[in-house]
């Protein structure tokens, strides 16, 4: 959903993940999308010089999973109670969040029907039917859909909402080794969605036993951090389910030796929460700040007519500027409304987070130049019309990088390494993202949660980063004093 989802929020609607390119009429070079699309061998389908717009806002995640031979599909929204209860253990803990349809009009339904909170129970009965022999494997499906979870704790737009959009991938393999490999391949794609598109630094790691998806074998995640609130936030997850679901749903196959075996499964998801994290990380007191790569409008052109100036000339220059940029594949629009002042328009488009504003007034017209203003740092520069495209492209690239660098600096300034309980409590009070040596015992994590419970919510593990600092022999757990096994990130979270 990297670009796609963000665009949806900006009003450039798209259908599902699979059809993202088709309806995108303003993507520059109008109408030639299919023909232009060819592999460059660099992991991108568009060349920067041939189609800048598509190169820049490619539907990254969907294209990448297609390269991994994952097919898009769609399963129904409604789940029958019998199917839902099939995997009781897994659903039990989540049961209060399941929404049920109990009426049609005024009449009670004979059998209430659930709305999917996730699609395991809808999909896996078919996996059991479709998978017979080793040649049916791997089975790799993804769906872009909505799910409903009846949240009770403070719903927050995009971050925790009762309905949200996501992609959920569900794959089945003959061997654990294949499943293990895919878990990390997908996690890397999630990292890239956050870092390369949303300009948000994330930490890749493994969840603790307490925080993992209980139905699976192990859970990996990418974790982001919101400096202003001092809270961690899970950006996406990639689970190895092991054979738990295969047992419950009887997903068996005949292996190469003709023996009956059980599949190894994974599931993975990221959601519209990405939008919430992006708003929280980059937004400022004037409103949204969108990274150019995911901005539906990358450049807004605003006429600045003065009294007695050549108003028509200025408006024409705005239109031709938009045309020039659009032809170069840049998503540009002009705000030519005559019932709002330039100042009002500046605020309006700042609120919407448009990365670049171009102002054209009488002086610019006379000098064949435009004034360009960056949304992220308000820097202004005059650009000659002759080098407009080149310089706007460079600025968009610069802004994308700068947003990532600034976000990384702020995040890193919040990371605090501690080794004792006192240091831990002090860092927690300072809203830090805490890296601490831990004995990796579930009881100790529960104890930390209990001891830090307060108005602000308890502190828990966010992840054990794959990138581990040195852990000298004899290092003790900050919470239990037992020998530490690893460094883990701790913090309050969303
Ligand atoms: C709420 C109600 C019912 C989370 C729920 O993470 C069931 C569930 O199974 C539930 N909330 N979960 C866990 C979801 C696991 C897994 N599903 C596929 C993922 C990735 C995508």
UniProtKB/TrEMBL annotation:
It comes from the Eukaryota. The keyword Aminoacyl-tRNA synthetase applies. Its EC number is 6.1.1.15. One of its GO terms (molecular function) is ligase activity. It catalyses: tRNA(Pro) + L-proline + ATP = L-prolyl-tRNA(Pro) + AMP + diphosphate. CDD domains: ProRS_anticodon_zinc, ProRS_core_arch_euk. Residues 1-39 are annotated as: Disordered. Pfam families: HGTP_anticodon (PF03129), ProRS-C_1 (PF09180), tRNA-synt_2b (PF00587). Transmembrane segments: none annotated. Residues 9-22 have a biased composition (Basic and acidic residues). Residues 59-291 form the Aminoacyl-transfer RNA synthetases class-II family profile domain. It is an enzyme of class 6 (ligase). The keyword Ligase applies. Keywords: Aminoacyl-tRNA synthetase, ATP-binding, Ligase, Nucleotide-binding, Protein biosynthesis. This is proline--tRNA ligase. It comes from Ziziphus jujuba. The gene is LOC107424792.
């Amino acid at each position: 959903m990297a670009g796609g989802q963000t665009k949806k929020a900006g009003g450039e609607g798209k259908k599902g993940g699979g059809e993202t390119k088709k309806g995108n009429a303003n993507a520059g070079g109008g109408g030639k999308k299919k023909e232009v699309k060819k592999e460059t061998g660099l992991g991108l389908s568009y060349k920067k010089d041939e189609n800048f717009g598509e190169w820049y806002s490619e539907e990254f995640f969907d294209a990448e999973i297609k390269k991994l031979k994952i097919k898009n599909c769609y399963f129904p929204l409604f789940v029958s109670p019998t199917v839902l209860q099939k995997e009781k253990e897994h659903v039990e803990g989540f049961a209060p969040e399941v929404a049920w349809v109990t009426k049609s009009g005024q009449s009670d339904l004979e059998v209430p029907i659930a709305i999917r909170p996730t699609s395991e129970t809808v999909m896996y009965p078919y996996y059991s039917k479709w998978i017979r022999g080793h040649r049916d494997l791997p089975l790799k499906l993804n769906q872009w859909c909505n799910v409903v979870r009846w949240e009770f704790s403070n719903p927050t737009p995009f971050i925790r909402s009762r309905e949200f959009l996501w992609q959920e991938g569900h794959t089945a393999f003959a061997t654990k080794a294949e499943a293990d490999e895919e878990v990390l391949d997908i996690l890397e794609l999630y990292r890239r969605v956050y870092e390369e598109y949303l300009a948000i630094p994330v930490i890749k790691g493994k969840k603790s036993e307490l925080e993992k998806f209980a139905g699976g074998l192990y859970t990996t995640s990418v974790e982001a951090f919101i400096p202003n609130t001092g809270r961690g936030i899970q950006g996406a997850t990639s689970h190895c389910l092991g054979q738990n679901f295969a047992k419950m749903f009887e997903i068996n196959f005949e292996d190469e030796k003709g023996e009956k075996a059980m599949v190894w499964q994974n599931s993975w998801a990221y959601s519209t929460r990405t939008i919430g994290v992006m708003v929280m990380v980059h937004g400022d007191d004037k409103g949204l700040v969108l990274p150019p790569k995911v901005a539906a409008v990358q450049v807004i052109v605003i006429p600045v007519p003065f009294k007695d100036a050549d108003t028509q000339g200025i408006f024409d220059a705005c239109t031709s500027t938009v045309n020039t940029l659009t032809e170069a594949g840049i998503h540009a629009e002009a705000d030519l409304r005559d019932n709002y002042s330039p100042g009002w328009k500046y605020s309006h488009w700042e609120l919407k987070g448009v990365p670049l504003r171009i102002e054209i007034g009488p002086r610019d017209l006379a000098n064949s130049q435009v004034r360009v203003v960056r949304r992220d740092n308000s820097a202004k520069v005059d650009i000659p019309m002759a080098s407009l495209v080149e310089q706007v492209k460079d600025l968009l690239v610069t802004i994308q990088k700068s947003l990532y660098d600034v976000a990384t600096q702020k995040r890193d300034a919040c990371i605090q390494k501690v080794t004792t309980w006192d240091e831990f409590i002090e860092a927690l009070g300072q809203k830090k993202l805490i890296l601490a040596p831990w004995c990796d015992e579930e009881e100790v994590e529960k104890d930390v949660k209990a001891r830090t419970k307060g108005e602000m919510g308890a502190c828990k593990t966010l992840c054990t980063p794959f990138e581990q600092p040195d852990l000298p022999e004899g290092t003790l757990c900050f919470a239990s004093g037992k020998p530490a096994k690893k460094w883990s990130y701790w913090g309050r979270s969303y």
